[in-house]
């Protein structure tokens, strides 16, 4: 491994790390040398991922946390810091989706998506800010979506939450650049996860999705983990305030 990509001696916190994108990122960060704490609402899921990380000879913590609760977020960050010494890398991956026409969108559904996808990362960034700014080092990686830049029917809450997360990424990048804290986002396209599997169950459905991807195929979740390693590592020392869309070219015509 090139030394600039090594995460040896660093500690990461990944929210929503029990499955899908979060799990893939957590495991790849550990492969690159990081100790990794994983948080999610379902403790059994993150417990399994923590065991996989320990099998790589890295330290790991599994925590049950709801990122929409700012008090619980502060407690989570304090616990990880006390147990693992510090948080060098924060990956805000916890998120939910939901589609509905505006006329039938309930207040609760709207609030749940906005609180999870936007307020959650805000609370987590705020909770790690003091230690990263004091050390004058750190990496924040927000997991956005290519739907942050592409409108979709029924996506009033989800698309808006991810577009706002992109702006939060850029604002924090500017605020924290003088402290050498990098803040970037990854905007995934179509990946096979629990959130997307209903749209990929049949060959016809899969073909429809592949036909809208310029590269004509899906790829492995590991690709997201590899990009996260770059953004978490010294290799990205001069990158901040960027949203990188990993989507096989789907957003190329929109940017």
How does this structure look, described?
The chain has helices at 20-31, 43-54, 70-84, 107-135, 156-176, 203-212, 222-232; strands at residues 11-15, 35-40, 60-64, 89-92, 138-143, 181-188, 243-246. The chain has 255 residues and is of the alpha/beta class. The chain has a 7-stranded parallel beta sheet, sandwiched between helices. α2 links the parallel β2 (35-40) and β3. The chain starts with 10 loop residues before the first strand and ends in a 9-residue tail after the last strand. The model has no long low-confidence stretch (mean pLDDT 95).
Protein topology:
Elements: E1 11-15, H1 20-31, E2 35-40, H2 43-54, E3 60-64, H3 70-84, E4 89-92, H4 107-135, E5 138-143, H5 156-176, E6 181-188, H6 203-212, H7 222-232, E7 243-246
Parallel strand pairs: 1-2, 1-4, 2-3, 4-5, 5-6, 6-7
Q: What count of domains describes the coordinates?
A: 1
Shape category:
globular
Record the strand order, biggest sheet.
3-2-1-4-5-6-7
- Provide the CATH top-level class: Alpha Beta
Number of helices: 7
CATH superfamily: NAD(P)-binding Rossmann-like Domain
Q: Determine the structural class based on helices, strands and strand pairing.
A: alpha/beta
Q: Would you identify the CATH architecture?
A: 3-Layer(aba) Sandwich
Low-confidence stretches: none
In summary, what is this structure?
The protein is an alpha/beta fold. It has helices at residues 20-31, 43-54, 70-84, 107-135, 156-176, 203-212, 222-232; strands spanning 11-15, 35-40, 60-64, 89-92, 138-143, 181-188, 243-246.
């Amino acid at each position: 491994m090139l030394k600039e990509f090594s995460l040896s001696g660093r500690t990461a916190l990944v929210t929503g790390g029990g499955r899908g994108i979060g799990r893939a990122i957590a495991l790849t960060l550990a492969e690159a040398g990081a100790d990794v704490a994983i948080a999610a609402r379902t403790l059994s899921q993150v417990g399994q991922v923590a065991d996989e990380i320990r099998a790589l000879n890295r330290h790991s913590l599994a925590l049950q946390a709801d990122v929409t609760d700012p008090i619980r977020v502060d407690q989570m960050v304090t616990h990880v810091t006390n147990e693992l010494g510090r948080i060098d890398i924060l990956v805000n991956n916890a998120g939910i989706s939901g589609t509905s026409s505006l006329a039938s969108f309930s207040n609760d559904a709207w609030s749940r998506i906005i609180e999870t996808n936007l307020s959650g990362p805000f609370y987590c960034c705020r909770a790690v800010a003091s230690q990263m700014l004091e050390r004058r080092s750190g990496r924040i990686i927000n997991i956005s979506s290519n739907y942050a830049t592409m409108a979709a029917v029924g996506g009033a809450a989800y698309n808006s939450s991810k577009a706002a997360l992109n702006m939060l990424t850029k604002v924090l990048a500017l605020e924290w650049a003088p402290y050498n804290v990098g803040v970037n986002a990854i905007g995934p396209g179509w990946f096979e996860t629990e959130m997307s599997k209903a749209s990929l169950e049949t060959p016809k459905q899969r073909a429809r999705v592949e036909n809208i991807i310029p590269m004509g195929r899906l790829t492995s979740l590991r690709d997201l983990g590899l990009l996260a390693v770059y953004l978490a590592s010294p290799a990205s020392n001069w990158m901040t305030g960027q949203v990188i869309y990993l989507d096989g070219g789907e957003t190329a015509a929109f940017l």
